[in-house]
Amino acid sequence: MALSPDSTPDLAVANLPQVILTLSPQNLTPPPTGLLNHHQNHDSHSGPNILSPTSFKYYNDHLNKYQFNLILTNTAVSLLKVIYPTFSTEPELRFFIVEILRRSRTSIQSLQLACFYIVKLIQGGRKLPLSLCKSPKFLFLGLIILASKFNQDYNFSFKSWLKICGVSDSDNGGFTVQTLRTIERDCLQLLDYNCFIDQHLYNNWCNFLAILGYDLVVKQHDLYANDLQFSDMQSTLFGVKLNLWKTYLIKNLQLDTLKYTQIKFTDYYNSILNTKVVSVGEVKSLFNKKHNIDDMDSSLQKKVKV
């Protein structure tokens, strides 16, 4: 697969989704002095067995790995659509993102960080340079390269990234190592060369990103199945919801306050139970047959690890 290049109206803050209203107070309130040190000390004493929000296992009580990856990918596409509102081939963009992640074996952490960079660009509101304005594919590629370099000591060369994209430096398509260098440089300039993220901010960001992503889910048909229903990105319903999130990200969310607050995806998920999850799989009736002691033992063995 080779790369090929191909203003949203403001919406009043009124009628914001409940999830945004829930997040607003803690993100708008200036943190008390010294609170950062408290969190840093708390984090440093956390046990080694505590799951990190950067891992999909952290969300396993509510989402399996497939669902979590699907939500992250859909969120990346949605955030890119904020920057490229006229881009209308979302399935193609989603395929591109999935293939880049698969071919490069990019970690979940790098994707979460790339989404953080996208939000910084949304908040910055700068005009995109020529190298990035043609297609959201170029911006995503540049940001995932930066995120991968930030997360890992060893990373691909530009020639390797070209191969991942399905092209070579000798192709006549004009997509070369120099093109990648330009894309990376322009992404760095848009980020003011600041790719750093504080660890506590990072943990809260991952929870926040999961909340944003799950809010874009219409239905989770089964708690344990892979099926998730998303809105058509060309639909009015999706456009309204995405504009609400855009308004919140630009006008209300202060990323630095994520250093001092505590956001948990679990709290959000529990608050919306019975609204999006419409079934939890087959539940056997307790009255359709005579149960014996073996049935009880079998049920207990499924619930209790021995």
Automatic annotation (TrEMBL):
<dbReference type="InterPro" id="IPR013922">
    <property type="entry name" value="Cyclin_PHO80-like"/>
</dbReference>
<dbReference type="GO" id="GO:0016538">
    <property type="term" value="F:cyclin-dependent protein serine/threonine kinase regulator activity"/>
</dbReference>
<dbReference type="GO" id="GO:0005634">
    <property type="term" value="C:nucleus"/>
</dbReference>
<dbReference type="GO" id="GO:0000307">
    <property type="term" value="C:cyclin-dependent protein kinase holoenzyme complex"/>
</dbReference>
<dbReference type="GO" id="GO:0019901">
    <property type="term" value="F:protein kinase binding"/>
</dbReference>
<protein>
    <recommendedName>
        <fullName>Cyclin N-terminal domain-containing protein</fullName>
    </recommendedName>
</protein>
